[in-house]
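PROTOCOL LOG
Step 1. Enter all chains and additional molecules of the complex.
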Amino acid sequence: MIAAPQGNSSMLYNQDENTHYLLAGSLFVHEERHFVTTVLGSCVSVCLWDCIRNQGGINHYMLPFWNGEGLASPKYGNIAIAKLIEKLLKLGSDRRNLRAKVFGGGIVLNVINPFMNIGERNIQLAEDMLRDENIPIIGADTGGNVGRKLIFNTETGSVFVKKLTKQIDDIKL
Amino acid sequence: MEQIDNETLLDELRKRLEENRIAVANLRTMTHNLEAVNEKLRQSESLKTDFLTNIRNEINNPLTSIMGLTKQIVDKKTDADQAREIAGMIYHEAFDLDFQLRNIFAAAELEAGETIPSVALVDVAALVRNQRAAFGHKAAEKKVSLDFQCVCPDGEGITFKTDPEWLQKVISNLLANAIEFCHEGKSVTLRVWQEGVRLNIAIADEGPGIPEADRKKVFDRFVQLDSGVRKRHKGHGLGLSIVKALVEMLNGSIVLASNKGNGCVFTVSLAEMETGRPVDVTSGAGNEFIFGDGTQY
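Step 2. Run joint prediction.
Step 3. Record the structure below.
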């Protein structure tokens, strides 16, 4: 058994469990329980969970809006969040039962920008879109100068977050 | 109320006016950017609509040809040589159709964000050679020669940890484009070499080249520089957008060097991917993963 006890409760996760490693620009939704891992720098992950059907999904996007260049992929938040919701609805979820948790959006480079930096813009997009969709955000850990590693349990909706204090540049976003 | 002297008041006013001026200038820039993006999105939607309209023909036409050709063999008394010739034509049509459909599915998968890599140790030289052989008939049609140079450190070939299917899609799309646009009788060169830990692949053609203004645009989806009903080249403009998306997922970059009239060189540079995915708390950069040092949400 791999146990990761911490402050509040423990997340037990043994070798037989279904796991998935989520790459940047991808999303993952499943009706069976999966433990999904991903690593975030300035990227943001929205974890969506259906509290009635106990199924969920997660995305990992790098930029807030698709600008019309290249493919319209979930590397862009507006597409990633819309697709995440769409996929859960396809699995039978009712919109009213969806709950969200938002993570990431750390500051990657020490750039002083008159506008918000990428991490902040990514977080803002998540907050705006989820509000527009009437999906409550019931948990979050965003911003700061840190990277984060997440493990999301798609069945219970719980997320284990480990802050990474190593140089963010070294982390594959 | 404290008495503020005029000088302080004026200073404060000046400061606030200046801040205001900066904010308005920023807003103007943002609005301008927004307008540009909006226009781009509108164009992309319009191209997508064209694509959907054209796709029926691009699938029906080859299929109709294939059916017509096979019927010829079945109905008429064709001898073995004639049958073989017709079978060759069927192969060409089927090959093109297969290539286009694979691209369409690849683009759909990439836009759905569900592409999962399966990393393996790939014999890159063999993969490129296979592609070169697969496209041989297309090159031959135009009398284009396909030259392959593999700079292998020990003469043995190059093995590299990456997703073989994705790498193949990248190479086949670049190769298909190179042959399509290469002038008749000229040559397409494929070069593979390692630079430190990176794998480099360059595909060069002797075609019309791409003007500087269009070099970024060609990677957008559904864009073909020569488009419209009378366009001279097959395809839907998906190839390069797929190549770019896949190269990014393969931890790489792609660079286009071209001069109008002097052909193109596409150079892809990849970093190795990790086999097996770091799935538990102790994997990957494991040192900082100390049990008990995290938060549950």
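Step 4. Note key features.
Residues 118-132 of chain A form the longest helix (15 residues).
Chain A touches chain B through 56 residues (CB under 8 Å).
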